[in-house]
From TrEMBL:
UniProt-annotated catalytic positions: H37 (proton donor)
Descriptive protein name: Pantothenate synthetase
GO molecular function, one term: pantoate-beta-alanine ligase activity
UniProt xrefs under Pfam families: Pantoate_ligase
Entry EC no(s): 6.3.2.1
Binding site for (R)-pantoate: Q61, Q153
InterPro entries reported in the protein's UniProt record: Pantoate_ligase, Pantoate_ligase_C, Rossmann-like_a/b/a_fold
Top-level division of the source organism's lineage: Bacteria
A single GO BP: pantothenate biosynthetic process
UniProt key word Metal-binding: no
Length: 282
């Protein structure tokens, strides 16, 4: 596995691969790999000739007071994991190489970025879109893989890619979970033991609502209340950031179950802010 730290070298490498007719898959990450990242790498390995994993804790997607400095990092372990997964290039940009001092260009999808995580992280998706488009330009991938845990991010990247005619196939991959249902996240390391014990209740609440919907409940306010009641008992240390029923593509709020509906949540648990989601209805 080649480690590249210089953005232009990455672009040159990928341009050469393209000229040779190689199909390139990109897995963009912020590192501190867990089994969710590994499943993206593994999948990329099966469908592409060349797999590029980028590891960059992108400062522009963190707001003031967020965990940019504290975000967990372990480059040695990440390097070993990526290499074991058969990654061809691990891109870890050297400090200061991703954004010029006078960087002035931003990519936004405001309609999809206002709700859900955007309510408390108003500049987050502008940073995500901008860095993802930069990574697309640096790696010129045929396809790029993202986890479905960050459903809003995925919906926004899909829309950006469509609207700007970016020739990249964007694919969401299933959420990887602990045995007790907690969605894997690099931020799970922030959880104290008691918080970790309560955390699976996030998912359990979502499953409870999905069961009610499967049995015919149509009113999303009733489903939301059932989740909150469950959380009050099983997740007393958690504070709801948002709990929303939305259309899976447009992310517009949904009040009646009709077709597929996404229930997306964010919960603050100690120092962690955990997100999860479930698709329900048919
Ligand atoms: O999901 C992430 O890890 C990040 O938001 C991404 C897509 C790598 C952009 O920095």
């Amino acid at each position: 596995m080649q480690i590249i730290t210089d953005p232009s070298q990455l672009q040159q490498t990928c341009l050469q691969w393209r000229a040779q007719g190689q199909r390139i898959a990109l897995v963009p990450t912020m590192g501190f790999f867990h089994a969710g990242h590994e499943s993206l790498m593994e999948h990329a390995r099966t469908v592409a000739d060349k797999v590029v994993v980028t590891l960059f804790v992108n400062p522009t997607q963190f707001g003031p007071g967020e965990d940019l400095e504290a975000y967990p990092r372990d480059h040695d372990r990440d390097t070993a994991v990526a290499s074991a997964r058969g990654v061809d290039v691990l891109f870890m940009p050297a400090p200061g190489t991703m954004y010029e001092a006078d960087h002035a260009t931003w990519v936004e999808v405001p309609e999809l970025a206002r709700g859900l995580c955007g309510l408390t992280r108003p500049t987050h998706f502008r940073g995500v879109c901008t860095v993802v488009l930069k990574l697309f330009m640096l790696t010129l991938p045929h396809m790029a893989f993202f986890g479905q845990k960050d459903w809003q991010q995925l919906a926004i990247i899909r829309r950006m890619t469509r609207d700007l005619n970016v020739p990249v196939h964007v694919e969401g991959r299933p959420i990887v979970r602990e045995q007790d249902g907690l969605a894997l996240s690099s931020r799970n390391v922030y959880l104290l033991p008691d918080e970790r014990r309560q955390a699976p209740a996030i998912r359990a609440g979502l499953c409870l609502a999905a069961d009610m919907a499967a049995r015919g409940e149509k009113d999303t306010a009733t489903l939301a209340e059932a989740i909150r009641t469950y959380w009050r008992e099983h997740l007393p240390a958690g504070t709801e950031d948002y709990l929303a029923f939305v259309h899976p593509e447009s992310l517009a709020p949904v009040t009646r179950m009709d077709g597929q509906v996404l229930c997306a949540v964010a919960v603050r648990l100690g120092k962690a802010r955990l997100i999860d989601n479930i698709l329900m209805g048919s």
